[in-house]
Design goal:
The chain is α/β, with parallel strands linked by helices. It has two helices and ten strands, in the order βββββββαβαββ. It has helices spanning about 105-120, 145-155, and strands spanning about 15, 20-25, 35-40, 50, 60, 80-85, 90-95, 130-135, 160, 165-169. The radius of gyration is 15 Å and the shape is globular. It starts with 12 loop residues before the first strand and ends with a strand.
């Protein structure tokens, strides 16, 4: 792994977003591996819908394909797609476009990202800590994720959600 992993690299961020509603997109471009980005238009491309009713600006950070996190063998570590933050909130977001068996993989990516973030940053300063696994295909679950969500919270202190809309109040 890198000596220090910086989740606040200017090239990966859009700071001070004041729009009441916007989206996070992650183009399906496995060859180019571009990072997730903020969109105020093209709602059909949004993998997550952000509704900011708080009146407080949000900061967006593209994590996957922007923030460098390496394993001990120098391979890239799995990371979630994005992070939203301000003085009160820390939210990690994983975007998926899959029909089956996507949730455990999304949770694993969120978990690894949170672990690395906690290694280099103090999360206690944030009042609300959340992680979102968003899937544009709205799968029907054959089982409840209640136990996994509870375990995730007990492990991390982050609430885990499996929905596309992320609200700030």
């Amino acid at each position: 792994m890198e000596d220090v992993v910086d989740f606040f690299i200017p090239k990966c961020q859009v700071l001070g977003i004041t729009a009441e509603m916007f989206g996070i997109c992650d183009d399906d471009d496995k060859a180019e591996k571009t990072p997730a980005y903020v969109s105020l238009e093209n709602e059909e491309k949004w993998g997550a819908i952000i509704k900011n009713y708080s009146g407080k600006p949000l900061n967006f950070t593209a994590v996957d394909n922007c923030v460098v996190v390496r394993r001990d063998n120098d391979d890239m570590e799995n990371r979630c797609d994005a992070m939203l933050s301000n003085a009160d909130n820390l939210v990690f977001v994983e975007l998926k476009n899959e029909r089956q068996k996507w949730f455990p993989h999304a949770v694993e990516q969120l978990q690894k990202t949170i672990d690395v973030f906690k290694q280099y940053n103090d999360v206690s300063m944030y009042k609300r800590k959340r992680a979102y696994a968003c899937n544009v295909r709205h799968p029907n679950f054959a089982y409840s994720n209640k136990e996994l969500k509870q375990k995730f919270y007990q492990t991390n202190g982050f609430r885990l959600y499996d929905e596309m809309t992320i609200e700030f109040r």
